Amino acid sequence: xxxxxxxxxxPEGRRVHVIERDLSEPDRIVGELLQxxxxxxxxxxGLEGKQLLKITANESIDAQKVxxxxxxxxxxxxxxxxRLKNYASDIVRRSFHNGRFIHKMHERxxxxxxxxxxxxxxxxxxEEKGTxxxxxxKNKAGEEMRSYVPLTIVCDGCFSYLRRNLCSPKVDxxxxxxxxxxxxxxxxxxxxxxxxxxEPSPILFYPISSTxxxxxxxxxxxxxxxxxxxxxxxxxxxxxxxxVPTPGAILLGDALNMRHPLTGGGMTVALSxxxxxxxxxxSLSDLNDAPALCEYLESFYTLRKPVSSTINTxxxxxxxxxxxxxxxxxxxxxxxxxxxISLLSGLNPRPVHLFLHFFAVAVYGVGRxxxxxxxxxxIWLGTRLILGASGIIFPIIKDEGVRQMCxxxxxxxxxxxxxxxxxxxxxxxxxxxxxx
Length: 436
Hints:
This protein is an alpha/beta fold. It has helices spanning about 35-45, 50-55, 60, 100-110, 265-280, 290-305, 305-325, 325-335, 340-345, 350-370, 375-400, 400-405, 415, 425-430, and strands at about 5, 15-20, 35, 65, 70-75, 75-80, 95, 115-130, 130-140, 145-150, 150-155, 170-185, 195, 205, 210-220, 230-240, 250. About 35% of the residues lie in helices and about 25% in strands.
């Protein structure tokens, strides 16, 4: 074996051993949204045409196309649509039952001739002289097994207990989602997600099948526990990526990085990371070369920043922004039909654009306070608004890493392990697209 994956993944050209704790169809209220940017990453992974349709089409998992959002505030509403004129008609957001999607991905991975998909529980990483050599796990029969490989990919989710060996986690628990399903309920705007900008936090509605609508109520705090009937709860988590480059192992998915799920960007970040890692490792023929592999993995943690930090910062800022500045956010979207919709969709992974969008909303709010003319109270409130916006976004940017997020080309790892065996200029251009 070349690679062992703790969790699940999309392999490419290597012999892969996937160890999944439970191969039955999961029942979760997370991971139900796939942004257009994430859908494009599935295509980059080779899931094109009929293969992709088998996973995401209506007749397969009853996935629903979503063309934008409807925002509601104080009895007013406005609609925002994805800007997808330059993309094929099939490139839109998908929403679905997470379990159905994951189950189809498992089925797709199991058909690959180089993939061994096994149900088991990984108990520890095998470490020798600072290098991860594989994992120990218990198989479905309860037998303790070992799998020795040159590369171990740890993607065992938000509750990962293996991440402590590969990073310094700083997990925040800002709120809980209380979720339920509404059956045969028509939303005001068909094929759109709906966000109620209420107090103290937002409420979301979006279709997950042709007959079901998911309702998620965000409840600040960490002590909500409801198990009555079909009502489910989920602790929302955020965690900046703070990996410790370790020979022989790498973190992916929620084990590496989490953001508030308000914007539904988690799957887009994960799929983008998978595509980037695949492209990096394509030019490394020998995974047993631990020093070279470690250099490539260090580059991965740098090159992923434009996509991940954009979506992470947007999720954190919008969650806090919607609570503190929702009135300005709503009116700016309503009057000018502008919003960071391309950033949210994963199609515009540029942190600088996010920064400008964020403060444009705050400045718009200040402008409204100055109408019809500045007053001491208006100036005071405007100053508080700018300071409040700064107090939201700058700590998030600091956690993401100012240098990696805004100036990745100044980091040696950005150049250290560029693939040297690319066969043509088109591949090189595609690789460079991960930078600004």
